Amino acid sequence: MLALTACIRINDRIRPFRYQHNVEDDDNWKKTFHTKYGDFELDFEYNDYEEDDDNWKKTFHTKYGDFELDFELNDEEDDDNWKKTFHTKYGDFELDFELNDEDEDNWQKIFHTKYGDFELDFDYNEDEDEDNWQKIFHTKYGDFELDFDYNEDKSVDDDNLKIGLYYKLPGSWGKIGFSYELNEEEYDDDDNLKLGLYYKLPGSWGKVGLSYERNEEEELDDDNLKLGIYYHLPISLGKIGISYELNEEEYDNDDNLKLGLYYKLPGSWGKIGLSYERNEEEEYDDDNLKIGAYYHLPKSWGKIGISYERNDYEYDDDNLMERKPWIIRPYQPKM
């Protein structure tokens, strides 16, 4: 560590001024001014390593409150690209802008006040995520989340309106909520009422939860109870999990146990995975092992892929399903 001490004469009084330069510490440059009006600290942080997300910071401590200006620029995994935080005696005010290609939070404002925490969150996702608009209100009575989902493409997902209200439980208990879905065409998805309770597990273990779905027309989708636990694998390995579904009517979907491992491919290549399904009634769906790779086409074109299915019973012997492209040859007149 390099230290430089200089003496400055002010009003016939000698006051030391110390400058510190740290190589290993993330505080690379700091100045602190102690005055009768309060302490003023000017802090500049520059980190060559990617682990710390604070690349530039200024902090001002005064008797009127603490003011912190924080700029974060992360090229990789961190989703905070720009942030300002103001700590005052009236409360903490944080302005956070997030621009992430994969994360669904593109714009966010958080206001921490003595009356409670208020968060305005706007989500805009071009790809598969259905959350287009979201507001979260953090109050002393609890956290309430209002979620609005709107999907433009009816052919892919005809859930055109979703509205939900969620209450954040203390600790890691996640949130319990109520969501309502209005579907224009009932044949695709007639789940109009969903109620769920989730617990966030420590580390990368994801969450374990219980969800209940009430369907107006039971013959289309009769999965009324789902229980699942998932583990988030490092990097892009996706997640591995197990889910259990309890169906009232077994003739539609009798897959009661599913176990899968998926790997997220780069870009729009989707994911490649292996899933295992255990069926109570084998005569309806006897595909117990599936492996597939898919490519997500642009806009509403869906996806194209190849999948392999292993069947216990040979009467359904389609073990390889693929979509072959059409070959169009130009017309050649006969000579």
UniProtKB/TrEMBL annotation:
GO terms for cellular component: membrane. Residues 128-301 form the Porin domain. GO terms for molecular function: porin activity. InterPro entries: Gram_neg_porin_domain, Porin_dom_sf. It comes from the Eukaryota. This is Porin domain-containing protein. It comes from Trichomonas vaginalis (strain ATCC PRA-98 / G3). The lineage of its organism: Eukaryota, Metamonada, Parabasalia, Trichomonadida, Trichomonadidae.
